Q: What sequence folds into this?
């Protein structure tokens, strides 16, 4: 996926959350203690950072959104250096696409690939933990040691619920509440909490979704209250947005007709 409000939302949520459960799920027994709502974030001038929804979500959590002045790349130097360090390690892996078409040359990246996405996820997490626990030339200590030394004065400024934070930054669509629920990606979703909102004029509600798992969405109702809605058709397995798109592409290629939900369930099981 190209850079977007979605990738920013997933990145910021990961930065803010306590990572102990995330690391444990990947079999990693190493500290990555950094978490909590930042007082400020520094961004470049990409369109995704100027999205109204992103600005509103930052304001809701009192995050000072600071833009890099145009034409001043030095403002992002420390970040670019860290990216270079991490990607330098990535490009040593079998299957790398390198940093450009020229650098890749005639190397068969796909043919040489040896990792699944899950494998790479774990490898990259370990690489970050190695960096966090190595002596940093500018700090004179490890990043983890520096975090722990300063954590008392950094933590606890803004109490928050991580799930509500995560939902606030997720991508959204406007949808009507129909008699059979919310329609999103040609899938129907339902919650009993939606019943009282059916047919309320021509108004639409804000629907937020996590592209990694389309089995649940969040619908904004009265008083900025979010309610969870799930698949109306329980035959559909949890699926990512990318898997959904691939399944629908295959369905069209096979000339499948009828209910998209049934076609989706069948192709995902296959």
A:
């Amino acid at each position: 996926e190209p850079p977007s409000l979605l990738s920013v939302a997933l990145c910021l949520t990961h930065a803010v959350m306590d990572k102990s459960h995330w690391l444990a799920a990947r079999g990693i027994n190493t500290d990555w203690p950094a978490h909590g709502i930042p007082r400020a974030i520094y961004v470049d001038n990409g369109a995704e950072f100027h999205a109204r929804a992103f600005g509103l979500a930052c304001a809701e959590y009192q995050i000072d959104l600071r833009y890099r002045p145009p034409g001043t790349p030095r403002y992002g130097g420390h970040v670019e250096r860290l990216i270079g360090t991490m990607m330098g390690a990535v490009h040593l892996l079998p299957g790398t696409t390198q940093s450009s078409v020229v650098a890749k040359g005639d190397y068969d990246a796909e043919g040489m690939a040896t990792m699944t996405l899950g494998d790479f996820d774990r490898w990259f997490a370990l690489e970050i933990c190695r960096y966090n626990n190595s002596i940093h030339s500018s700090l004179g200590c490890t990043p983890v040691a520096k975090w722990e030394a300063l954590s008392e004065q950094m933590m606890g400024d803004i109490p928050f619920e991580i799930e509500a934070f995560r939902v606030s930054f997720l991508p959204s669509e406007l949808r009507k509440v129909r008699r059979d629920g919310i329609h999103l990606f040609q899938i129907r979703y339902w919650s009993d909490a939606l019943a009282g909102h059916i047919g309320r004029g021509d108004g639409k509600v804000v629907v937020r979704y996590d592209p990694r798992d389309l089995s649940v969405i969040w619908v904004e109702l009265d008083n900025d209250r979010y309610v969870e809605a799930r698949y109306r058709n329980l035959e559909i397995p949890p699926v990512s947005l990318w898997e959904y798109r691939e399944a629908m592409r295959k369905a069209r290629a096979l000339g499948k007709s009828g209910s998209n939900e049934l076609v989706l369930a069948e192709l995902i099981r296959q």
Remarks:
- Strands lie at 40-43, 64-67, 172-175, 182-184, 187-190, 205-210, 213-220, 226-231.
- The CA atoms of residues 17 and 162 lie 7 Å apart.
- DSSP finds eleven helices and eight strands in the chain.
- The first strand starts at residue 40 and ends at 43.
